[in-house]
Design a protein that fits this description.
Helices cover 32% and strands 26% of the residues. The chain has 330 residues and is an alpha/beta fold. Helix 3 (91-101) packs across helix 4 and helix 4 (107-117) crosses helix 5. The longest helix is centred in the middle third of the chain and has 14 residues, at 163-176. It is elongated. It starts with a strand and ends in a 28-residue tail after the last helix. 34% of the residues are buried. Residues 304-330 have low confidence and may be disordered.
Length: 330
């Protein structure tokens, strides 16, 4: 449904998207992950025909987005990061306006149907300026859905929302992905895990990893990690020495008020860890899995020397910025 081949986008001498290729299948929710400035928004703007590429081919629903732009756009619904709303219009009036622009048949019935789908029927007559940001995101989804597109592209739809609104939007995205191809960008890995079938990670304009969220996490975490907290506060060196002498433990390091433990691949050493702690007279009050953060995954994928977070005192440290040289006063 979405086919991208060797897509490159440059702004002058700066390359925002660098020769990327991927596909999204019908009925698939594809996560597009990356830090700010990685090239996510630029890619989505090219996919939706908002800007031309420097080179490459993009096809949506079988149509070339550049050679057959109008035909391709009829099959695309787009929710940009900043929702293009008119604050002085009512919710229904705005969605009806978009439906009219797209020449939607049986327009009024379709508008009512879409507003019900996004949960905005009760606020249909409210001015957009008087509704919350979460509701505005829902209105943005309604305008993207009103022409019943086969492909839906959402650029960070949960950004700036409170936790309750985030949960609502995620649920809506899951429902929408059941009957269409959906591309969903975010910089939060946990969000992609809850919503997406497959994930692309982009960094520096290049795709650096691809796979299902769980497969990607499992592959990058190697043997997995657990977090340990003790009731007592014995010397850290003694605890680390005891942990690293335990079978199935590769390394350990202090983390907060506990210890972060790297396990060997294919092992579950939690029982042995507890036994070791009890043998030393230390009571375990917490032992749980420790998932990698998105930042750590990016470091794993993009640094030449893969820094082992456990050996550097917990999480990988961000490189310090060089201090700017001060100019001497004349």
């Amino acid at each position: 449904m979405i086919e991208v081949r060797h897509l490159t986008k440059k702004y002058g001498s700066f390359t925002a998207v660098d020769d990327i290729s991927f596909t999204a299948q019908p009925g698939e929710i594809l996560g597009f992950l990356g830090p700010n400035g990685a090239g996510k928004t630029t890619t989505m703007r090219v996919l939706t025909g908002y800007m031309p590429p420097t080179s490459g081919v993009v096809r949506v629903a079988g149509w070339d987005i550049f050679e057959e732009s109008l035909d391709a756009r009829r099959h695309i619904g787009y929710l940009p990061e900043t929702v293009p709303l008119y604050p002085d219009m009512t919710v229904r009036g705005y969605v009806d306006f978009v439906a009219d622009l797209r020449r939607v048949p049986k327009r009024r019935a379709r508008v009512d149907e879409v507003l019900a789908r996004v949960g905005m029927t009760e606020r249909a007559n409210s001015l957009i300026r008087n509704i919350s940001k979460g509701m505005r995101q829902r209105v943005g989804l309604a305008q993207a859905l009103v022409h019943d597109p086969e492909v839906l592209i959402l650029d960070e739809p949960t950004i700036g929302l409170d936790p309750h609104q985030v949960i609502e939007v995620r649920q809506l995205v899951r429902e929408l992905g059941q009957d269409r191809t959906l591309m969903f960008s975010t910089h939060i890995l946990s969000e992609a895990e809850q919503v997406c079938d497959r994930v692309l990670i982009i960094e520096g304009g290049r795709i650096v990893a691809e796979g299902s969220p769980q497969t990607l996490r499992d592959r990058l975490q190697r043997g997995g990690r657990v977090y340990l907290r003790l009731e007592q506060t014995p010397p850290q060196g003694d605890v680390i020495a005891a942990l690293e002498a335990t079978g199935g433990v590769e390394a350990a390091a202090p983390e907060g008020d506990g210890y972060l433990i790297q396990l060997a691949r294919g092992t579950d050493a939690r029982g042995d860890i507890v036994e070791t702690m009890l043998a030393h007279g230390w009571r375990v009050i917490e032992l749980r899995p420790w998932a990698m953060t998105l930042e750590e995954i990016f470091l794993e994928l993009t640094t030449a020397e893969l820094a082992a977070p456990l050996r550097s005192g917990g999480r990988p440290k961000k490189p310090k910025k060089k201090a700017a040289k001060r100019r001497s006063k004349r």
